[in-house]
């Protein structure tokens, strides 16, 4: 006799656990008043170089820190430590992306109230990180001029989940005959309206616009309440 | 290749549901996979076959329903379906089919959810 089967509807998000962890992180970042920015790109697009320069430029006026994900080494963290801002490494082992829980573990009891900006550098991968919310306020997707103008069309999912696109290594654009107009059209095709900046961390081109963007995005979310809680007038 | 960790999450979810129902055998897990979810159907099915070994779902099938991307026009509010079958390299532009205005308002296509279980009675 064969058993009868019955269909039970459940409708549950597969990444529910990550979503819950990401929401908790987002609440924690907001409560601490730290603006969190994540970087995603393919390997070699220049995330670490851009991050290093960004930390150096921002540290003049802000308290900044970074978490960097890497499969096996701490090379990136050591490189970033040269910027003399707090950097923590997340070694993911064989996991090809960061998850919210990894971020939470790496943060530990880091006093986030002491920070203005926290950067999270994801593992170099244009596919897997797209599905995982890390609780960041701003997700930046980077692609370098050497990767070709059609990258956004090949990886629409990651471009579609990003808030800002950065075209990196602008100093190499003419050497590789990069077609900036085509790249812009391709980005807009998969993520209409997204802000696009072109930068060269090495040569400095576009870096001040990039820093201004970070500052203004941070101000947009932190303008409302003052840092001091307003006290109820004392009853007499 | 994050399909393996997605498959493990599906197994965990379904095992938990089965346990709550007194350890009923699960014959199949139905999932909904949006075309903009970043998960590849064929890779997920292979990963599921690996992940189900030594689990309460060792003989369960994975039934995948793919859902297309639907965007809503910010100007005329028409909903446009962008069908992006896997394997096709580039996808159609995120523009309204009626008036051509670009839209980032994705109403469907990001789904990554377990919708139902087939259990033995």
Keywords for this structure?
heterodimer; A: 236 residues; alpha/beta; seven-stranded parallel sheet; 34% helix; globular; disordered C terminus; B: 121 residues; alpha+beta; three-stranded mixed sheet; three-stranded antiparallel sheet; 2 helices
What does this structure look like?
The complex is a heterodimer of chains A (236) and B (121). Chain A is α/β, with parallel strands linked by helices. Helix content of chain A is 34%, strand content 20%. Chain A is built from 8 helices and 8 strands. In chain A, strand 3 (64-70), helix 3 (75-81) and strand 4 form a beta-alpha-beta unit. The N and C termini of chain A lie far apart (82 Å). In chain A, 43% of the residues are buried. Helices cover 24% and strands 30% of the residues of chain B. Chain B has a 3-stranded mixed sheet, with helices on one face. A 3-stranded antiparallel sheet of chain B has the order 4-3-5, with no helix packed on it. The model of chain B has no long low-confidence stretch (mean pLDDT 90). The chains are: A alpha/beta (236), B alpha+beta (121). Chain A binds chain B through residues 3-17, 95-97, 127-128, 130-131, 150, 153-154, 156-158, 160-161, 188-194, and chain B through 1-2, 5-6, 9-10, 13, 17, 21, 25, 27-28, 30-31, 36-39, 84, 89-91, 93-95, 102-104, 106, 112-121.
Write the layout of secondary structure elements.
The complex is a heterodimer of chains A (236) and B (121).
Chain A lengths: L4 E9 L2 H17 L2 E6 L6 H12 L5 E7 L4 H7 L5 E5 L8 H8 L9 E5 L16 E7 L6 H4 L1 H6 L2 E5 L11 H11 L4 E4 L8 H16 L14
Parallel strand pairs in A: 2-5, 2-6, 3-4, 3-5, 6-7, 7-8
Chain B lengths: L2 H18 L5 E9 L6 H11 L9 E7 L1 E4 L6 E4 L23 E3 L3 E9 L1
Parallel strand pairs in B: 1-2
Antiparallel strand pairs in B: 1-6, 3-4, 3-5
Helix pairs in contact in B: 1-2
């Amino acid at each position: 006799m064969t058993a009868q089967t019955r269909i039970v509807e459940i409708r549950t998000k597969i990444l529910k656990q990550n979503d819950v962890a990401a929401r908790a992180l987002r609440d924690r970042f907001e409560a601490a008043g730290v603006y969190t920015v994540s970087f995603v790109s393919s390997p070699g697009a220049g995330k670490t170089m851009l991050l290093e320069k960004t930390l150096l430029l921002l540290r003049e006026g802000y308290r900044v820190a970074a978490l960097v994900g890497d499969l096996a080494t701490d090379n990136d963290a050591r490189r970033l430590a040269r910027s003399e801002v707090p950097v923590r490494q997340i070694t993911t082992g064989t996991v090809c992306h960061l998850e919210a829980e990894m971020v939470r573990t790496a943060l530990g009891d880091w006093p986030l109230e002491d920070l203005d900006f926290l950067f999270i550098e994801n593992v170099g991968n244009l596919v897997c990180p797209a599905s995982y919310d890390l609780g960041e306020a701003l997700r930046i997707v980077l692609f370098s001029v050497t990767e070709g103008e059609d990258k956004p069309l090949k990886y629409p999912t990651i471009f579609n989940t990003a808030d800002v696109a950065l075209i990196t290594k602008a100093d190499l654009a003419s050497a590789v005959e990069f077609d900036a107009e085509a790249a812009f059209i391709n980005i807009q095709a998969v993520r209409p309206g997204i802000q696009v900046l072109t930068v060269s961390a090495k040569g400095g081109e576009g870096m001040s616009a990039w820093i201004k963007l970070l500052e203004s995005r941070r101000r947009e979310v932190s303008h409302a309440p003052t840092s001091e809680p307003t006290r109820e007038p004392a009853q007499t | 290749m994050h399909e393996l960790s997605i498959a493990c999450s599906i197994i965990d979810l379904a095992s938990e549901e089965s346990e709550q129902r007194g350890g009923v055998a699960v014959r199949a897990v139905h999932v909904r996979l949006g075309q903009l979810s970043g998960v590849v159907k064929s890779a997920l099915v292979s990963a599921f076959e690996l992940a189900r070994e030594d689990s309460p779902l060792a003989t369960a099938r994975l039934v995948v329903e793919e859902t297309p991307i639907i965007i809503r026009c910010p100007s005329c509010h028409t909903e446009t379906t962008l069908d992006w079958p896997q394997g096709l390299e580039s996808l159609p532009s995120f523009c309204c089919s009626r008036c051509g205005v670009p839209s980032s308002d994705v109403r469907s296509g990001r789904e990554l959810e377990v919708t139902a279980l087939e259990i033995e009675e």
